[in-house]
Records
---
Amino acid sequence: MNNWLEFIETRLNLDAEIAANLLLTLLIIIALWLIRRGILQFAFRRTADIKARYNWRKTTGYILFFLLAIFIIPIWVRNSTGLTTYLGLLSAGVAIALKDPLTNLAGWIFILWRHPFRVGDRVQIGEHAGDVIDIRIFQFSLMEIRNWVEGDQSTGRIIHVPNGAIFTSPLANYSHGFNYIWNEIPITVTFESDWEKAKSVLGEIAKKNSILPEQIDPQEKVIDEEYLIFYMHLTSTVYTRVVEHGVELTIRYLCEPRQRRGSAQLIWETVLREFSEHIDISFAYPTFRYITKTTPPWETNEL
């Protein structure tokens, strides 16, 4: 130990007390890092689950961070007066220079405390939407969906969002509480079509492709007592209204958030097959009609 102290003092030209503090700090860091590494190796041998390994890494990382603060700060601040002065100066400087990092740190504490989302949830915060793949002290990461890709599917990009955004931007969680979303598909038939038959056909299609109430855990029907929100009707339905170029029939049904595009495709393919079997049902689309008026012979000067 003395040899290391002499080496640090001579090489770095430091005071003996500072050199001792520096050496002790390095030893604490190395010891805690080795302990964390040993714990992770032990845990990884017991489980191959990716999510469990991720949780082990994050949890031990947080514990290491707090232990470092607990053990190292007293080394450099020996008495309470010095500690008070140090914390006062530190807080004043930090409040001015590190406003955004402090806000992000407060956001991280809020995320861990209130759990507005967890790793694996699909969320939208502000204009960004995606699946939460990581939560860190200053930011969380999303596997982006939407943007130039339709149907809530992944773009392949990773978005890093500051934790402080939790305080300033609206947050929507697709996965927490009620685990399904309502999706709507508008289908328009011509005024000449038998719209009542079309509505009946669409109702059967929606029923076959929707999440049925009996498939949902009764506890999921009540989202959370904290919000006093619950659903009374979970069955699919078809709504009717008249639009410019026909009768619009809108299918409304339940699906899993990550299956919205796939379920819509399945419904559309079924609709195309079913409507092709009924000659009295036709899709409507914007059209133009030209009417030509001919002049009767008796209104001309020709004999």
Note: The CA atoms of residues 30 and 36 lie 10 Å apart.
---
Amino acid sequence: MRGLKDKRVLITGGASGIGAAVAKRFLADGSKVVVVDIDDNAIEEIIKELPDLAGTIHADVSDADHVKTAFIELKKICGGIDILINNAGISIRHMFLDITPDEWRKVMSVNLDGVFYVAQEAARYMLKNENGGVILNMGSTNGIMGYPLYIDYNCSKAGVIELSRSMALELAPKIRDNAVCPGYILTPMQEAEYTPEMLKECASKIPLERLGKPKEVAALFAFLASENGAYITGQAFVIDGGEIAGGLASKYE
């Protein structure tokens, strides 16, 4: 992808799932990639899988102090940041009436507070760059439509989308900011919450008749971060196989 060679890229939640696929893609495009994750075991595995990483950082994105420390470490590793992939997130499958205050706060603290903390710190560094930078936040189709059993997650992702749009207005012209909103992507997190039968049923209702692949989401991130996406900011990009074009159950029979 044009313009990604030697770019300094930070990926949160980058040791597994979509984050790991994004790391692999940016490395292939010649970027200098640093992965942030809270899971030390996953970090060990990604180092084995992607030995060309510029570095890895253990940090909890929901903790503002952890985030500040992570950026100090990032500066030591590669001198700064050009591209942020703000990917870290969690979900809990539960009924609305069963959500506890602690569960609500946990989801919000990672998915929304964490995205805010990391994006704000990244922007402060990027504004010092001659050419600014690019911030890409992980949204979801859950932040665009209502879904049962994930109300806290849905609300957090809706917040990420609005955060991205508003940041784009304030940070332009030096920094571009967009949200990427996947639908059903076959990741370890998805497989942990859905049985094979449930995944098969979901796929049957998607117009493209399958779940997405992490590498396909990674390709969208790469495009938006590259020179090919240089005139794109303040948008939420859906990648869902047509799922929400007319609703999950809208496939023509």
Note: The chain has one domain: 8-184+218-240.
---
Amino acid sequence: MSDTDRMRFPAAELEDFIARVLVTFGLPQSDAANCGRLMIASDTAGFDTHGIFRLSQYVKRLRAGGINVTPTITTVTESPATAVVDGDNAMGHLVVEYATKLAIGKASEAGCAWVGARRSNHAGAAAVYVAMAAETGMIALYGTNGSANHMAPWGSTDLLLGTNPIAAAIPPADGPPIVMDIATTVSSFGKVRTAAQRGDDLPPDWMIGRDGKPITDSSRIKDGVLNPIGGHKGYALSLIVGILAATLSGAQMGVDVEGMGDDEYQRTAVNNGHFIIVVDPARFGDAAAFGARVAEVAETMRDATPMPGVDSVRVPGDGRAASIADATENGVPVHAALLDNLNNLADDLGITPLT
């Protein structure tokens, strides 16, 4: 994507735009501001398919009454190291931040914590939440079931599984954390939707049709099935993540999932499920020594000899850290097609556009 295809905005300006949009639909100012902050955290970190790009999708559900704009997020059951959170059909960002903070607090007391959440919605990039734990010196592992089914069991074309991402963050002694955030499909559906908005072709390994042949025409994404990473292994990983995030927490899974992006389901609660595990490394020995060893391992990876055509070897999270630094200095990039979409939304709502 060239610089001529995008404009740069201060993160605070984009956060404010999101908040103003959400307030028009009845979200309290504080909730709207928090959603704006968490959404732009995805963009700032380079996950531009999971940040402000999703705003129009959320607005469809808000218009239809499919999201509770004045929720009461509660802890419905808990022990010293576990809890289940009921999101009351709130914006998913609010639910997962609540669950993450609860898990961090429990891990600081018990050494480790597992918090599940149900009756939630799409929450943006998973990396945002595991990074919160890493910033406190904790290790975190997160998973969620997809808010729509775009993947089939291996050997089938029946849409029964989501992209079901899994994320982890591990803090080194110094510098940004190691952060992994991957879908269990070759591409997240957000990237597919982004390509469709821009009119770009899809790589041939992203999607197949019901005939098993690749789909590269991004206008046909509703006809496609996302390919799992690693073939049958990606299917297995998606299934396990979905069961732990949704089934264990009492959220929807498999045939019960109703597509967040499908027009006929905009009024229906998605009932997303999530889990986050937080571990205090100090319970396994000296935390500072652990952080130093993590930093050493990371540097060993970076020092590996690059293959021909590869500039350097990176560690998961290096791209995120570079994107945050770039966005902080130069502003958050917004593609021209997305900017048009957002400003059309602003005109429709009668609020100041991003120009």
Note: The longest strand covers residues 112-120.
